[in-house]
Amino acid sequence: MSESTAPNPQADADRLEAAADQAIAACGGDVRDALKALIVANEYLESEVCELMQAVSHAYVRGRFKTYNG
Question: What is the pLDDT of residue 62?
């Protein structure tokens, strides 16, 4: 495994810290508001995933998607 593909826990932690700082700053420094905003965003994304899964499932049943046979 090359170094460029090796997991880097410190880089991941730094990235998460920066993202958390950005979310808090976007909510005027209020951690509670940042948490609520992230929950709302997550719920929205979950609903989008459900809608996309249903659309793909219906299209597959109707024969619009072909299976990949390698």
Answer: 76
